[in-house]
C-alpha cells in the first residue's frame, strides 16, 4: 500500500535529505500510525537507533560502519535534521514504535566494495542515493572524490528523467518546485516546518504518485544500470516480510523512491491485477547466498553540512544543505527569514546592509519567482536579489553567503554513550581537558608554548598528525616568529573519525598510540631525511619514550649514508628538533651531537659534491646549500648558547661551527669546477654574513663575468648572487656591482644572448616592481662604477637611485613628525636662512661642529665648538642617530 487505504505495508518513497520529503513522511506517519517503522539502512544499526532520542544527539550525524580488522574500509550513512529517515526514526522513538533498518548489512556491503569498487559520483535513486547503499558516502577508502569510474557512471538518473518528462531541463529546480517548496498534499507553498495536510488531504497521495512514476521508469529501464540494487532489494523484501509477521500491518517503510516498486512486489499477491509475479522468499535468499562478509562495527559520528554537499564528492549529496535546513526549520516566511540571515552575515563582515535592503530584496525575489512561475522563491531568485540589492552587483558577498549559509558550517554532536574505540574516547577526554572543541568551520589557533594549556594543545595536535589524523595544520604565525609561538588552522571533518578508528591499532590512548606509531615509522624508514623529520615530530609531540628508538635509527642511517644531498636534506629538520627541544624543555643533547656530526660530514663532502654538476643538479644542490646555511646558523647559535663543543671527541677544540662553514663557502666561491650558480650563491651568503672584505664581492663578480667565462656560466653566477626578492636591492645600493653586470651584458655575443636571456629574465623577474623601476633608471642614467656613496664633501652629488643633492625644503617638511617620534620638543620649521626660532644654526655644522655626510645627512658626530654645543642640534643628524 503506497497511498489511500487498504491492507499491506505503507511504502514511503523519498528523496534523501529533502525538507519536503521529511515533512511529507511525518504527515504520512501521523495519518497511518504504523505498528513498526522500517528504514533504509544497515541492520547492524538497530541497537544504535535509541541513541537518536538522546538529549545530546544533534544532527547532522552519520552511522559509521568499518571493518574491525581494517578500519580504513568504512562507510557512512549521513542523516540531517531534514532527512526523511531521521524524521521517521525520531517519530518512531517518540511514539514508542519499533524501528528497524532493512538495507543490505554493512558486513556484506564493505566486503562487496572491495570486489566491485563503485564511484562516489553515483546518480540518485528516487531523487537521492540511498544512504545505506553499502558505499554510502564512503565506500572502501572513505569514499574520497576521484574514485575510478565504473559502470555506475551510466546509471539512469530518475530525477532527471521525471523532470524531462514534465518538460523541465533542470531536475533540481523541478524537484524543489514540486516537493521541497510545497507542503505535503498542498497546492500552495507551505511555510511550516512540520506542515501537514488537513483532514481533507490524503498525506499518502504524493507517495502513491511517486511510486507510480518510479514503476513506469523501472518498466522502461529495468534496474537502471545497478546490479547491486537487486541484492539490496532482495534483503529489504526479506526484512519487510519478517516485520509484517512480527508486528502485523500496517508497517511503514521509508526508503529511496526507486526501490518502492521492488518492495511493493513483496506485498503483492500472485496473479493479482496483472502485475508481474512477486519474487519468492527462496528466490530472494538465493540472491543473498554466498555474499562476501567481513566483521564490522558501527557507531554514530558527527557530520557536517559541508560534507552533505554534492561538491564534496558525496554521491547522495545536495547542492544546498543550509538552505534545505532553513526550509525545514523556519516556522513561517522562509524568504524573509533567509534574507534577514544574509543581511546579518554581511553586516558581520562589514558590508553596509540595512533593513531597507532586506525589504527590497524580498520584493525582488518574490517578483522574480512570480515571473518564473515558481511557487516559492528559490535559491536562484534569492541569489539574484542579494546580488542586485545588497551586493551592488558584486559576486563577493554572494559567494560568502553561498559558503556560510547555502552550504553552512554546522557540525553535529553525538552523546558520550555512543560506541567508540578506546582511542576515540581518550581523544574526547583530551579535548575536554584542553578546552579544544571540534568545529566544522576552519579557524586559526594561536598558541603560546610557555603556557601549560597551550603546550598541551600543541602536543595533542602534533600527536594526531603523527597518527594520520590531520585535525590541525601548522600555519605561519603573523604576530611573532619566536619558537615559543605556534599557529594552527583547525577544522574537524567527519572522515577523521575513521582515521581515529584506524589509528586505534597503535594504542588505546593518544600518547601510547603516537609513541608506537613513531617507533614503527623509525624502523621502517629507508631515507635519512625521514628519520630526522620523525625525530623533530617526536620532540614537537612530546614523545620521550619514542625518541631513543628514533635516535638509534638516526645514528644507524647517518653512519651508512654518504650522499651529501641526503645529509644536507636531513640536517635542517634535525637542527629544528634541537632548537624546539630547548624551547619545550626537552633534553636534546643526543640530537645536538648527531647534528654536529652530520654538519661536519657535510663540510667535508660538499665541495667535491658540487664539482662537475649539470644545470639540474646545480639547482637541486642550491636548495640544499641554502637550507644548510640556515641550519648551521641555528646550530651554531645553539652550540654557543649551551657551550657545547663542536665535537664529541677529546681532540683539540675545533674552530667555531660558523667559521668552518664560512671556509667551505669560500672554497665553493673560488673553485672554477663548481657551477656558476653555486659559486654565485656561496658568494652571496658570504656577503650577507659580512665575511667578504671590502672589495671581495666586486672581485668575485669581476672574475665570474670576465670575457673568458662562458655566458651561460656567468648568467648562472648572476642568478646565484643576486637572485631572489632581495637581490635587486643589492644592485640598487651598490653601483659597482650593477656596472659590472651591465658591462658584462653588453659584451655577451648575439649568438649566446638568446641562451642566457631566460636565466636573466628569471633572475630579474623575481624583483619587486619598484626595484626593477629603480634599476631601469640607474641603467638609463648609466652607473658611475665608483664607490658606493659619492665622495665626502660633495653635498650635491647623487646618491644611488636618487636625484642630485639634498632637497632641504622637503627634508624640513618631515621634521615635526621626526620630533614627535623621537620625543624632541617642537620648535617649528626652519626659516629661509637655515636658523630655528631661537636663532641657532639649524644645519648643526657650527664653526667646529661635525660636517654633513656625503648624502646631505649629518654624520652624527658630536660637536666640540662652543657655538655647535648649544641646545639647537642638527635635526637631520638627530634623526640619523
UniProtKB/TrEMBL annotation:
Bias kind Low complexity: ranges: 138-151, 790-801
Membrane-spanning parts: none
Region Disordered, annotated ranges: 113-151, 182-201, 778-804, 828-881
InterPro entries for the chain: DUF5682 (IPR043737), LolB (IPR050458)
One Pfam family it belongs to: DUF5682
Compositionally biased spans, kind Gly residues: 126-137, 855-868
Protein name: DUF5682 family protein
Organism this protein belongs to: Streptomyces yunnanensis
Amino acid at each position: 500500500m503506497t497511498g489511500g487505504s487498504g491492507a499491506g505495508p505503507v511504502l514511503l518513497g523519498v528523496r534523501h535529505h529533502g525538507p519536503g520529503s521529511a515533512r511529507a513522511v511525518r504527515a504520512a506517519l501521523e495519518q497511518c500510525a504504523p505498528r513498526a517503522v522500517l528504514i533504509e539502512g544497515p541492520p547492524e544499526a538497530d541497537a544504535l537507533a535509541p541513541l537518536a532520542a538522546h538529549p545530546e544527539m544533534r544532527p547532522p550525524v552519520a552511522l559509521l560502519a568499518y571493518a574491525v580488522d581494517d578500519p580504513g574500509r568504512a562507510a557512512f550513512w549521513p542523516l540531517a535534521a531534514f532527512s526523511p529517515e531521521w524524521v521517521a526514526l525520531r517519530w518512531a522513538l517518540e511514539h514508542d514504535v519499533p524501528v528497524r533498518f532493512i538495507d543490505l548489512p554493512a558486513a556484506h556491503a564493505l566486503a562487496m566494495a572491495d570486489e566491485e569498487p563503485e564511484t562516489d559520483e553515483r546518480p540518485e535513486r528516487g531523487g537521492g542515493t540511498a544512504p545505506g547503499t553499502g558505499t554510502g558516502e564512503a565506500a572502501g577508502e572513505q569514499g574520497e572524490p576521484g574514485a575510478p569510474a565504473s559502470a555506475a557512471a551510466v546509471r539512469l538518473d530518475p530525477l532527471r528523467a521525471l523532470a524531462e518528462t514534465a518538460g523541465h531541463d533542470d531536475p533540481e529546480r523541478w524537484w524543489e518546485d514540486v516537493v521541497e517548496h510545497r507542503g505535503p498534499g498542498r497546492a500552495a507553498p507551505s511555510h511550516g516546518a512540520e506542515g501537514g495536510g488537513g483532514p481533507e488531504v490524503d498525506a499518502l497521495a504524493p507517495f502513491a504518485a511517486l511510486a507510480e512514476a518510479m514503476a513506469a521508469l523501472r518498466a522502461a529501464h529495468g534496474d537502471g544500470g545497478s546490479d547491486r540494487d537487486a541484492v539490496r532489494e532482495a534483503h529489504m523484501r526479506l526484512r519487510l516480510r519478517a516485520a509484517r509477521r512480527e508486528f502485523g500491518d500496517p508497517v511503514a517503510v521509508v526508503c529511496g523512491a526507486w526501490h518502492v516498486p521492488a518492495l511493493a512486489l513483496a506485498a503483492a499477491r500472485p496473479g493479482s491485477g496483472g502485475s508481474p509475479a512477486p519474487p519468492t522468499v527462496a528466490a530472494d535468499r538465493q540472491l543473498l547466498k554466498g555474499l562476501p562478509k567481513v566483521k564490522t562495527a558501527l557507531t554514530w559520528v558527527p557530520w557536517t553540512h559541508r560534507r552533505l554537499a554534492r561538491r564534496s564528492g558525496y554521491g547522495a549529496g545536495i547542492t544546498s544543505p543550509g538552505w534545505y535546513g532553513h526550509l525545514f526549520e523556519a516556522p513561517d516566511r522562509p524568504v524573509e527569514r533567509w534574507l534577514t540571515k544574509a543581511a546579518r552575515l554581511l553586516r558581520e563582515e562589514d558590508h553596509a546592509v540595512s533593513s531597507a535592503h532586506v525589504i527590497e530584496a524580498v520584493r525582488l525575489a518574490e517578483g522574480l519567482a512570480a515571473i518564473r512561475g515558481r511557487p516559492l522563491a528559490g535559491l536562484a531568485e534569492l541569489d539574484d536579489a542579494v546580488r542586485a540589492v545588497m551586493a551592488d552587483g558584486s559576486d563577493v558577498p554572494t559567494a560568502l553567503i553561498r559558503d556560510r549559509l547555502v552550504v553552512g558550517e554546522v557540525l553535529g554532536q553525538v552523546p558520550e554513550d555512543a560506541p567508540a574505540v578506546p582511542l576515540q574516547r581518550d581523544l574526547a577526554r583530551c579535548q575536554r581537558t584542553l578546552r579544544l572543541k571540534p568545529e566544522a568551520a576552519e579557524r586559526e589557533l594561536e598558541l603560546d608554548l610557555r603556557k601549560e594549556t597551550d603546550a598541551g594543545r600543541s602536543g595533542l595536535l602534533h600527536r594526531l598528525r603523527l597518527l594520520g589524523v590531520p585535525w590541525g595544520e601548522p600555519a605561519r604565525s603573523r604576530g611573532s616568529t619566536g619558537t615559543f609561538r605556534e599557529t594552527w588552522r583547525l577544522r574537524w571533518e567527519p572522515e577523521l573519525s575513521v582515521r581515529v578508528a584506524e589509528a586505534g591499532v597503535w594504542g588505546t590512548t593518544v600518547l601510547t598510540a603516537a609513541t608506537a606509531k613513531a617507533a614503527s615509522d623509525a624502523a621502517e624508514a629507508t631515507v635519512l631525511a625521514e628519520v630526522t623529520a620523525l625525530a623533530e615530530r617526536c620532540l614537537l609531540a612530546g614523545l620521550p619514550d619514542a625518541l631513543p628508538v628514533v635516535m638509534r635509527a638516526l645514528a644507524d642511517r647517518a653512519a651508512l649514508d654518504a650522499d651529501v644531498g641526503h645529509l644536507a636534506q636531513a640536517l635542517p629538520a634535525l637542527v629544528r628538533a634541537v632548537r624546539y627541544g630547548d624551547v619545550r624543555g626537552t633534553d636534546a643533547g643526543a640530537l645536538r651531537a648527531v647534528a654536529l656530526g652530520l654538519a661536519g660530514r657535510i663540510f667535508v663532502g660538499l665541495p667535491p659534491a658540487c664539482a662537475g654538476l649539470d644545470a639540474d643538479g646545480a639547482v637541486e644542490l642550491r636548495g640544499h646549500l641554502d637550507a644548510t646555511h640556515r641550519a648551521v646558523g641555528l646550530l651554531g647559535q645553539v652550540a654557543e648558547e649551551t657551550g657545547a663543543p663542536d665535537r664529541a671527541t677529546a681532540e683539540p677544540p675545533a674552530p667555531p661551527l660558523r667559521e668552518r662553514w664560512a671556509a667551505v663557502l669560500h672554497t665553493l666561491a673560488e673553485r672554477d669546477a663548481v657551477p656558476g650558480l653555486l659559486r654565485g650563491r656561496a658568494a652571496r651568503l658570504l656577503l650577507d654574513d659580512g665575511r667578504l672584505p671590502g672589495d671581495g664581492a666586486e672581485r668575485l663578480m669581476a672574475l665570474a663575468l670576465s670575457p673568458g667565462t662562458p655566458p651561460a656560466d656567468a648568467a648562472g653566477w648572476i642568478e646565484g648572487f643576486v637572485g631572489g626578492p632581495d637581490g635587486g636591492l643589492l644592485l640598487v645600493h651598490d653601483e659597482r656591482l650593477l656596472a659590472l653586470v651591465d658591462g658584462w651584458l653588453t659584451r655577451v655575443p648575439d649568438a649566446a644572448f638568446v641562451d642566457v636571456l631566460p636565466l636573466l629574465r628569471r633572475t630579474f623577474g623575481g624583483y619587486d616592481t619598484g626595484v626593477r623601476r629603480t634599476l631601469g633608471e640607474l641603467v638609463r642614467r648609466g652607473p658611475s662604477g665608483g664607490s658606493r656613496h659619492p665622495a665626502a664633501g660633495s653635498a650635491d652629488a647623487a646618491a644611488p637611485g636618487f636625484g642630485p643633492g639634498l632637497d632641504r625644503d622637503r627634508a624640513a617638511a618631515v621634521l615635526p613628525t621626526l620630533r614627535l617620534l623621537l620625543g624632541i620638543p617642537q620648535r617649528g620649521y626652519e626659516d629661509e636662512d637655515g636658523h630655528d626660532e631661537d636663532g641657532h644654526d639649524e644645519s648643526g655644522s657650527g664653526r667646529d661642529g661635525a660636517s654633513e655626510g656625503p648624502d646631505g645627512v649629518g654624520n652624527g658626530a658630536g660637536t666640540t665648538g662652543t657655538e655647535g654645543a648649544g641646545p639647537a642640534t642638527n635635526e637631520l643628524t638627530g634623526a640619523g642617530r
